[in-house]
Sequence to fold (103 residues):
Amino acid sequence: MEELKKVIGEKIREAREEKGLTQKELADFLGYSPMGISHFENGIREMKISDIQKIAAYFGKKLEYFLSSGLTMFRVDGDGANDPGVSESLSDFEKFLSNRKKE
Fold:
């Protein structure tokens, strides 16, 4: 889960910098402090899925942009279903989504 927070944070920073926005400007849009945005971007705090969706719409990007890391989370072909790393990644993602729903 820590890795997912970091990936999302890096993507948020990339999108923000691509638009030439400051952390304060993004914070104002989302209703957070600039320090809160810094914590998200550095993977210290988790973001609400609804906030990631807002950011995606604001930057004109698909939600998948913020959730993909270039790392293999699953395989379409071969014996990926039996790969312990794949199973762990999918399990972590399901836990992440489940925790988001509870909040």
User: Anything to note?
Assistant: Residues 1-69 form a domain with the 434 Repressor (Amino-terminal Domain) fold (CATH 1.10.260.40). The CA atoms of residues 7 and 70 lie 10 Å apart. The radius of gyration is 15 Å.
